[in-house]
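Notebook B, p. 112. Complex prediction, attempt 2.
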Amino acid sequence: MSNIAKAFEDKKAFIAFITAGYPDAEISKDIIRAAAEAGADIIEIGIPFSDPTAEGPVIQAANAAALAGGITTDKIFDMVEELRRDISIPLCFMTYANVVYSYGTGSEDFIKKCAQTGIDGIILPDVPFEEKQEFDEVCRRHEVDFISLVAPTSKERISMIAGEASGFVYVVSSLGVTGVRNEITTDIGGMVSLIKEATDVPCAVGFGISTPEQAKKMASLSDGAIVGSAIIKIISGHGKDAPAKVYEYVKEMADAVHSAH
Amino acid sequence: MEASKSSRGRFGMHGGQYMPETLMNAVTELEEAYGHYKDDPDFNNELSGLFNDYAGRPSRLFFAEKMTEDLGGAKIYLKREDLNHTGSHKINNVLGQALLAKKMGKTRLIAETGAGQHGVATATAAALLGLECVVFMGKLDTERQALNVYRMKLLGAQVVPVESGTATLKDAVSEAMREWTNRISDTHYCLGSVMGPHPFPTIVRDFQSVISKEIKTQILEKEGRFPDAVLACVGGGSNAIGAFYHFIEDRQVRLIGCEAAGRGVDTKDTAATIATGRPGIFHGMKSYFCQDEFGQIAPVYSISAGLDYPGIGPEHAWLHDIKRAEYVAVTDEEAVCAFEYLSKTEGIIPAIESAHAVAHAIKIAPGMDKDKIMVINISGRGDKDCAAIARYRGEDIHE
C-alpha cells in the first residue's frame, strides 16, 4: 500500500493544497509546515503554471504571483528536499502536463526526481484517462502514485477511471474551475458508490469546499476532503502572518474532517 | 516517450486530448456527432448552401499579373478568402461548427478570438442560426481591435474581455475552456483554429479544407496542372491547413507555412513556434510550443493579433516532423511591407496575418522559373489592420 493510501487508514483524510512560492518561497515552506503540524493528512503542493486552465481566479493569481517571484520547478524540488527533513506525511504535486513533460529530457526526469525527493503522488488535471498511460507507466516504475480525477460529468467513465486508480481518487465536486462555492449540488454519494464498486483505493472530494461543515459532509460521503482556494485566499490576505493563519484554519478543517463518519 | 495507446486524434506524436475529465464526455459527444454528420448528405447539402449562398463561396482564385511581372519569377495566384462574408476564412469553420452544434441540440456558442475575425464570424453564424453567443477576447486585443468588439456586439454577441495572463489570444482560449467546464449541456465551444483537443483539429481542418479543394479545381481550369507551391500564414494554422490539405498527397506541391517572427526569431518578441518552440502539452494538445526551460508558456508577440499564439496545430507539427511542409518565419517589418506592396500592386489590402505569406512569396518568387506556379492564400482582408499599420508607420490614426 502506498503512503498516500495509508493516510486514509482508520480515518477520513484532510488534504490541503498550497501553491509553492506563494507569497514567496520561504513563507510557502512555512505554510506547508504549518499545515502539516495542524493535522493535514496529505499536502498537495501546487507547482505554478503560466496558464492554469483548471483554476479559478484565486489560484490563477497565486500562480502568476509565484512565477513573477521567480519560483521554478527546480527550486520547488529543493523546497521539498528541505521540507522532507521535518515532514513525514504524504506530499503530492499538483501541476499541469507541460510542467512534467517539458522537465529536463522529459516526464521520466520529473517523476524520477519526485521519487528521489519524497513526493508520493502527482495530480495533473489536464491529463484524462485516455492520456494517462505515458505518465502513469513511469509513475508506477518509480512508485509515485498517479492520481486520477472523476467529475460530475464522468458518469459511465467512473468505473473505468477508478478501476485503474492509484493513491486516491480525486472526486471533482462541481462543474467549472477551482474556487469557493456556497453549495455543492452534485450527487457525491452516487459518484462515490460507483468508485467503490470499481476499486479499494480511497477517494476524496475537492473543488468548492471552504467551511468545516462542508468538509465534514464531503468527508462523510467519501474518504476525505480537499481544500485549495480557501487556503490560498487566507494566504493572499495575510502575507508574513499567513503560516499562523493557515495553521488555525487547517486545524479547524482537519478536526472537522477527522470527526466525520 | 510514446503517447498512450488509448489516445485518440494523433498526428504522429502530436494531438491527443489533454483535457480536464469534466470535458471528456463533451469532446466524446462532439466526436460522435461529427462522425455521424460529416458523411450525412443532408448536413453537407445544408452546409454547402450556407457556404455558397451566405458566405459567397467558392472564393476566387485570382492571377496576380502585376505582382508576377514585378517579381519576375513564378506565376502568382491569390486565393481570395478575404472576399468571404465577414472578411476571412474563419466563416468556413464557424458555419460548419455552428450547424453541427445546432444538430447536437446546443443553444449557445462560446468562442475565443485574437484579432476578432473568429469572434465576428462566430457571432455572425450565431445570429444566422439563432444561437446565443459569448466571445472571450484578451483585454489587450479588445483595445487593439475595438471595431471588431463593436461588430460582435452589433451581431448580438456578448464579448468578455480576458485580463488574466498576457491578456491575448492564449488567455482567451484558456478562459473559453474554463467557461466550457462550467457550462457544458447547452454550450458548444466553437474553437477557431486547428488546435485544442481531438476532435477539434480534425473538425476545423475538414471545414477549412474547402479552400484547397477549390484551389485544385480552379488551378486545373486555369493552368491545367497543380501549383508548384502553396503559401499560407500560420498561427494556430487553420487557413494554412485548409489551403494545404488536398495537396498533402501531391508530393510535388511545396507547402509553405509562414509564421510570425515578430521583431525577429532571435528576440523574445516573436510568435514563431516552429522556429523557436519545442514539444509540449498545452490547450488540450501535444504539439510545438514557445516555452521556457521549465515548460512555462512564453508570452509571445506579433504585430498580428491573429498569429499571436504560442503554439501551432498538431497536424502542422506533424507535417513539419515528416518534412512534408516547410515553415518559415516572417518579421513584422516584412509583413507590413508586403501589406503595402499588395495594396499598391494589385489593389488588394490583405489582412496583416495574410501579409506574412505575401512577404515570403515576395522573397521566393523571383528565384523561381517563370513556368512555375505559386498560390498564396489571402486568408482575410486588411481593413481591420489599417489603423494599426498606419500607427506602425508613425501616423496618428485611431479607429
